[in-house]
UniProtKB/TrEMBL annotation:
Name of this chain's protein: DDE-1 domain-containing protein
Organism, as annotated: Araneus ventricosus (Orbweaver spider)
Annotated DDE-1 domain residues: 1-61
A Pfam family this chain is assigned to: DDE_1
GO molecular function, one term: nucleic acid binding
InterPro entries: DDE_SF_endonuclease_dom
């Protein structure tokens, strides 16, 4: 169950870091190749606070067998995020 949550967290983290790098390249600034621990923690906090949704966590619990309720209106968040990344 938590593998899905961790996968989602990593995906959003990488997306934020890549956006920051692309932004620096577009502004002709130096791209920071190494990320220090403090910056990584700050970015992970932002991901957990703003990008990790309750819907994603609920879906991971459902896939883990912890909920017997089904809701067909919920789509797979990870597939939507991947599709969004591929489109950009």
């Amino acid at each position: 169950m938590d593998l899905g949550i961790i996968k989602n967290l990593k995906m959003h983290y990488r997306k934020r870091i890549l956006k920051e790098m692309i932004s620096a390249i577009e502004k002709n600034e130096t791209v920071q190749e190494n990320i220090d621990l403090r910056k990584a923690i700050v970015e992970l906090y932002k991901v957990w606070k703003f990008d990790a949704t309750a819907k994603t966590i609920r879906n991971c619990f459902k896939r883990g067998g912890f909920s017997n309720q089904t809701d067909d209106s919920n789509s797979d968040d990870e597939d939507a995020i991947l599709a969004d990344l591929k489109a950009k």
